[in-house]
Specification:
Strand content: under 5%
Number of helices: 2
Distance between the termini: 74 Å
Structural class: mainly alpha
Largest sheet: none
Helix content: over 70%
């Protein structure tokens, strides 16, 4: 394998790694959004604690 082929392969791998990292960032944003929705008090949990009356 010559140097040019190695550089080409490294460039392709770097592209895959960057795409995977973007995917992880997107997934973290989605999970953070889902966690935020779960953490928001629902009307039933607020009523159980006697808040908002």
């Amino acid at each position: 394998m010559d140097g040019k082929q190695m550089l080409k392969d490294c460039g392709e791998m770097r592209g895959h790694v960057l795409a995977a990292m973007r995917g992880v960032d997107d997934l973290e944003r989605i999970l953070a959004g889902a966690a935020g929705q779960v953490d928001e008090p629902t009307s039933s949990s607020v009523a159980e604690r006697g808040e908002g009356q």
